Amino acid sequence: MTADLIARGRDGDDDAFRALTEPYRRELHVHCYRMLGSFQDAEDALQDTLLSAWRGLGGFDGRASLRTWLYRIATNRCLSTLRSAGRRPAKAWDIPGVEPPEPTRLGEVVWLEPYPDALLAELSPEARYEQTESISLAFVTALQMLPPRQLAVLILRDVLGFHANEVADMLDTTVESVKSALKRARAGLRRRQSEPAPVADSPAENAIVANFVQAWQTADIDALVALLTDDVFMAMPPLPLEYEGREVVTRFCAGIFGAGRRFDLVPTRANGQPAFGAYLRSATGIRHGTGLYVLTLTGDRIQAMTRFENHMLAAFGLPRSLGPSREF
Q1: What is the CATH number of domain 1-84?
Q2: How many Å is the maximal CA-CA distance in the chain?
Q3: Gap between the Cα atoms of 326 and 279, Å rounded
Q4: DSSP classification of residue 121
Q5: Is the whole-model pTM more than 0.90?
Q6: Residue 42 pLDDT > 90, yes or no?
Q7: What is the pLDDT of residue 327?
Q8: What is the pLDDT of residues 109-155, one digit of tens each?
Q9: In angstroms, rounded to a whole number, what is the distance separating the alpha carbons of residues 93 and 102?
């Protein structure tokens, strides 16, 4: 059946090509996201991958599986993006009436974007397991700090489980080079050590989430602080400002609440983590979407809060604004 579809695809049959590639479309998108750290960049890379596959199907010789061949195209497309100078630039602070505290540091991965869990549900059970185990924001961010070739090797070997000889073929290099790059990538991967997060949708997770929503929507800074770890981390890409430590994160949140900004939160999930569309209340009753928050949990506390811009709301099926009554 596959041979027939390949033959028809080579003859220009769109439906045959779609039938060949559709089973891999979502996992390729996740792969591009993990390599690039950006949902939109992953969308662009996936489209380029499928176009290249369509044009190059005549050169597919069947020595590797179709899946491996598609991963080769996608990986090299992402490497081209990573090596270009056109990544999304940092953005200046633009919240009127709020003066942020001095940041702990300036973040480098300002192009980071979240990935909707609803799309992960489209993966096959096997692919869903291997993908969601390494899709957290912390892991994706850490990957972005690696050199491109090391990043590709680490994902292909440690996340996706391709053999060293397959990776060497994908990257047009030697097995020895792959092994060397993998060793350096593992050594360079900077990940925070912490207690495991509670299981998704478990009573433990639900309790933390409910307490966070209550504290944030009522601007209860004391209740919010009680939920944070001592080394809590806050980031707001594409703003480069990053804050680490309960004291400075508390001052940041107190500044937001002190300026009179009040929010309603609409729950969703991103990168296997609790997330919320944030809607700013106004005097008219209309609540305007200001961004998307993603929480990183550890034990029974919040270890990180990451805020993304409101253009991400659409990818999560969330509206740009809410009316006076609760619409969720």
Answers
A1: 1.10.1740.10
A2: 66
A3: 11
A4: T
A5: yes
A6: yes
A7: 45
A8: 999 999 999 999 888 766 665 565 689 999 999 999 999 999 999 99
A9: 12
Provide the 3-class DSSP secondary structure of residue 165.
Answer: helix
Integer Cα distance of 276 and 264 in angstroms: 9
Beta strands in 281-328 (DSSP E): 287-298, 301-309, 321-322
CA 179, 185, 186 angle in degrees (round to 5)?
Answer: 90
Here the tokens at position 16 are: 């045959």
C-alpha 220/C-alpha 222 separation (Å) is 6
Adjacent-strand bridge partners of 61: none
Classify the phi-psi angles of 285: left when phi > 0, otherwise alpha if psi is within -120 to 50, otherwise beta. Answer: left
User: In the chain, which segments carry CATH 1.10.1740.10?
Assistant: 1-84
For the chain, first and last CA: distance in Å?
45
Looking at domain 203-322, its CATH architecture is Roll (3.10)
Distance from C-alpha of 303 to C-alpha of 252, rounded to nearest angstrom: 16
DSSP count for the chain of H helices, then E strands: 13, 8
Helix residue ranges, H only, 1-65: 2-10, 14-36, 39-56
259 φψ region: left (φ > 0), alpha (ψ -120 to 50), beta (else): alpha
Amino acid identity of residue 328, one-letter, is: F
CA pair distance 15, 54, nearest whole angstrom:
12
